[in-house]
Amino acid sequence: MPGPKAPEETRREQIVTAAYEVALRTGIDGVTLRAVAAKAKLSHGLVVFYFKKKDHLIGALLDRVLATTAMLHVSKDVARIPHAPERLGALLRQELDRLSLDPRGRRLFFEYWALGVRRVLIRRRIGAALERYRAAFRAIAEELLAPANGTDVTPDALAAVAVSLISGYALQAMIDPDNFDTGAYRMAAQSLMERLAPTPA
Amino acid sequence: MPGPKAPEETRREQIVTAAYEVALRTGIDGVTLRAVAAKAKLSHGLVVFYFKKKDHLIGALLDRVLATTAMLHVSKDVARIPHAPERLGALLRQELDRLSLDPRGRRLFFEYWALGVRRVLIRRRIGAALERYRAAFRAIAEELLAPANGTDVTPDALAAVAVSLISGYALQAMIDPDNFDTGAYRMAAQSLMERLAPTPA
DNA sequence: CCGTGTATTGACCAGTCGGACAATGAATGA
DNA sequence: TCATTCATTGTCCGACTGGTCAATACACGG
To answer: Could you tell me if A170 lies within 8 Å of chain B, comparing CB atoms?
Structure first.
C-alpha cells in the first residue's frame, strides 16, 4: 500500500540528510540504500527512485560533506588584522579551533578523501575543494611575502604548507588524541607562521 | 581433490603477500577472502584456515603496510649533519622525496588511517606508528630548540608539525597532482624548518 | 604397509547488497 | 466522475560476502 505523497524536491534533501546521519555514525561503508531508507523512514525502493544509482547518492552526500566542513570563511575579526603575518597566524588558529569541535564531519571528509584515491569523480571534487581552501590562504601569503621577495618561498607553497598544518593537525588528533598535545601544536604552528615576516634572510 | 602440502609457515606470508598485491590494486575494500585466495592460487577455504577471521588477515596486512611504508630511517648522510636545523630540514626533505616514489603504499596507509577512525585496534596501531614517527623528529627538535629555550615551541609540537608537513604533502599531492607544485612545497617546508634556529625572538 | 594427523579443497549456507519491477495509492486535469 | 500521471511500496533477483564443514589427499611415525 503505497503511502502518501510528498513529491516536493524536499525528498532528495531529506534522503541526503538521512544519508549524512547514517554516515556520521557508521562511515561511508555503512551508507547502504536500506540503511538510509530506514533512517528516512522510507522504502529503499524510493531511494533508488530519486537517485538512480547509489553512486549518485554518495555524490550528493559528498556535496553535503564539503559544504558543511571544507568551507573556509575568513571571519571579520581576522580580516581586520592589518599586519599580514599576524592575520595568517590568526586564520590558522581559527581553523585549528574549528577543527576541535565536531570532528565527526572531518572524519567523513577524510573517508571521502580515501575514497577519492580510487574513484576519479570524487578525487576531482576533493581536489577542487582543497584548491579553494588553498586559495584563501594564498591571498594572504602573497601580501605577506611581497616585501621579502628575496625568499625562496612562493605564495602557493606557503598556502599549501598552511593547509598541511591544518590537515595534519586533524589527522594526528583524530588518530591518537592521547599522545597529541593540541595546545602545544597550535602554539607552535602559529608561531611558525608569524615568524615568516621579520627577516627575509 | 585436496592439493599438495606446503605446510610451511610460508603459507601465511604468501597469503599476506597476495592480499597486499590485491590491496594495492583495488584498495582494502577489494581485499576479499576469495580475491586473495585467487591471487595466491588457493581455495578461499584455506585462507580462512590460516586466518580464522578476515579481520586477522587485514590485521596482518596492516603489519605489512606499516613495515614497508611507515618506517623512518635516518640515513647516514643526514645523521652526519652537525647543525641541527639543517639536519631537520634534510630529514624532512628525505621523507618528502621518499613519498614521491611509489605512492601506492602510502595510499594504503591512508586507507588504513580512515579505517582506524572506526576500528579501535587499527586506530591504536596507526597511532603507535605515528608516535614512533614523531619520536624520530622529536630527538632532533630537542637538540634544535635547546639554545633558544625562550621560545614557545616545544620539541613535541615541532615534531608534530614536521609530521604534518609530511602527511599534508602526501594528502595534497596524491589527490590532485596537477594543482600541486611539489618542488615549491619542498623548498618552502625545508626553508621554514631551517628558519627556526637563528633568532629565538 | 597402515593408521593418524593435518593441509587442502569444493560445496554449501545465511546474510546483505544494489537494482528491477509490478502493483498500488494519491493527486490532478479534463 | 474518470482517466492519467507519478510517488511509493514491497517483493524478487542475481551477485557477492564471510564463514562452516565434510570429504579428500598427502606426509609421516610406527
So the answer is: no
